[in-house]
Amino acid sequence: MEKINFIFGIHNHQPLGNFGWVFEEAYNHSYRPFMEILEEFPMMKVNAHFSGPLLEWIEENKPDYIDLLKSLVKNGQLEIVVAGFYEPVLAAIPKEDRIAQVELLKEYARKLGYEAKGVWLTERVWQPELVKSLKETGIEYVVVDDYHFMSAGLSKEELFWPYYTEDGGEVIAVFPIDEKLRYLIPFRPVEKTIEYLETLVDSDPSKVAVFHDDGEKFGVWPGTYEWVYEKGWLRNFFDAITSNEKINLLTYTEYLEMFTPRGLVYLPIASYFEMSEWSLPAKQAKLFVEFVKDLKKEGKFEKYRVFVRGGIWKNFFFKYPESNFMHKRMLMISKAVRNNPEARRYILRAQCNDAYWHGIFGGVYLPHLRRTIWENIIKAQSYLRPENKVVDVDFDGRKEVMLENESFIATIKPHYGGSIFELSSKRKAVNYNDVIPRRWEHYHEVPDAATPEEESGEGVASIHEFGKAIPEEIKRELAYDWQLRGILQDHFIGVNESLDRYRLVRYHELGDFVNQAYDFKINENSIMLWRNGGIYVERKIPVRIEKNIELTKEGFLAHYRVSLETPYEALFGVELNLAVHSIMEKPEEFETSEFEVNDPYGIGRVRIDLDRKGKVWKFPIKTLSQSEAGWDFIQQGVSYTLLFPIEKELKFEIRFKEL
């Protein structure tokens, strides 16, 4: 009888730093019921990847589940597929760290009773050089999307077999995940998947269809718990698959023991199709969505889709400078602590991918995920001897100044307003400037994503199919920043401007200091910065700003001197953007010479002292992003702008003190 081989796999992951209740909910709604139902079907085989952060949580909170996994492995129902332990994008970390990450998860797989030979590629981000790193860890196969193969020029009909790929003389097998199955399972009725698999039945005994996708689709995604478990989809699916004589269920390893991959292929740098949309800069992403829609409307998409490609995953470092800075800080410390096992474990944790990108899932907009990355970078750096550096941290061709003592790390960008863009406390392991600006994203205007599959009214909707309108109450507060958000950013503002106009970016910036270059000179534990710029009104009024930033044991002390060549009445503002995440703030205006910030579940308590009374404009920085649940209007931090009237000369000092 002619058959089709079928490999079924899931990928279970929760990012480092995610809330405990999220782990608990995902466990109860997906991870636990899935494996309990699998146990009911001894003929069903699943290839499963669990990320390290999830396994650590399960081991601590649900140890009986580890016993269930061991039992399923022993019964031959579960093949363990590994990745980097802390779920890094392997292409985005050094080779030495790739090997360490994979070896850590392979060691955990041994605890479950399995010698892992395959890799689930995080976010399916492929780079040819990964072959050598994976082979060095004893990996024999890797799982990627069929989109990777189509990007290499293969037709859809050629994507029902694994292939070999090579780099530098090393060879590894690559399995293509069937995109159609990703959109059928588990969202459409079981018979739709069975019908599709039966259309693939072939006289070639080596033909195989591969499904491998997020385990959270089975109970965590909106609407799926009722559909998958309460309405019986998963039991019906396992029963239909195991009882169908035309479907030959295999694990990856069983397939490779029976058949040889079809030949050699060279895959380009790629991820899955949706990622190629998300990783594009917002304006280009909007055009990409429009282009895909136009091709579908004209009936040309299926014919030409192999040539439809957007961006690559590393584009996120271009799209989000804060992600790039965090990533390059991680790389800097990774190299420095490679021979220190304790410090290195923190850096491996700081490589967890979620906080570095954003699509429907990625968490660059989720403060608690970024905070965890920074926590581990800071803890790793704390093993090193403090030293001041002038170095291009983020690889943009312009050097930063890093001041460091036993208590703090301050990274200053002289080329961008002479402002602080990292103020990390070693005692608290927090970066006080972990703040993302308000950016326009392409989906703010494009409610639908560029999905390769058409929607269906049957089953339950995939989150890729949700069309969402922005609520009116969010629209009223929505604003987009023109600048990155640092600490000690220097503004000139008209005397008649208001807090509301300022926070909603409807005011007029009079000066040219916020994002322009300052000259600088480094002293022992401080940096002197100055700029000869101007105020632009009816004419340009030359202005000189001097600021000396001194790193102290408790924070920093900034001395300001501002001079106008000719008198002009304005407000001089110094903006401090602080990573206040756990206390939801509202816009407020007050006068004071000192104030305290209290963020109990975030940066904790700090105090700002001035040597004179000034006006303070305070407002939350809230970004609009999408997630599995819909729209997220998230407080990324709080802006505190210290305002002083100026006509000709102004001197003052600001003290930032950690409490």
Write the layout of secondary structure elements.
Layout: E1 4-12, H1 20-40, E2 46-50, H2 52-61, H3 63-74, E3 78-80, H4 95-111, E4 118-120, H5 130-136, E5 141-145, H6 146-151, E6 163-167, E7 170-177, H7 179-184, H8 190-199, E8 208-214, H9 224-230, H10 233-243, E9 247-250, H11 252-258, H12 273-278, H13 282-297, H14 301-304, H15 316-319, H16 321-336, H17 341-349, H18 367-381, E10 389-391, E11 400-404, E12 408-413, E13 419-425, E14 430-431, H19 472-475, E15 487-493, H20 499-503, E16 519-522, E17 526-536, E18 540-551, E19 555-564, E20 570-578, E21 588-599, E22 604-627, E23 630-646, E24 649-658
Parallel strand pairs: 1-2, 1-8, 1-9, 2-3, 4-5, 5-7
Antiparallel strand pairs: 6-7, 10-11, 11-12, 12-13, 13-14, 15-20, 16-17, 17-18, 18-19, 19-24, 20-23, 21-22, 22-23, 22-24
Describe the structure.
This protein is of the alpha+beta class and 659 residues long. It is built from 20 helices and 24 strands. The strands form 4 sheets. Strands 15, 16, 17, 18, 19, 20, 21, 22, 23 and 24 form a 10-stranded antiparallel β-sheet that branches. Helix 4 crosses helix 5 (130-136), helix 16 runs parallel beside helix 18 (367-381) and helix 17 (341-349) runs antiparallel to helix 18 (367-381). It is elongated. The N and C termini lie far apart (74 Å). The mean pLDDT is 95.
Describe, in short, the structure shown.
With about 650 residues, this protein is α+β, with helices and mostly antiparallel strands. It is about 30% helix and about 30% strand.
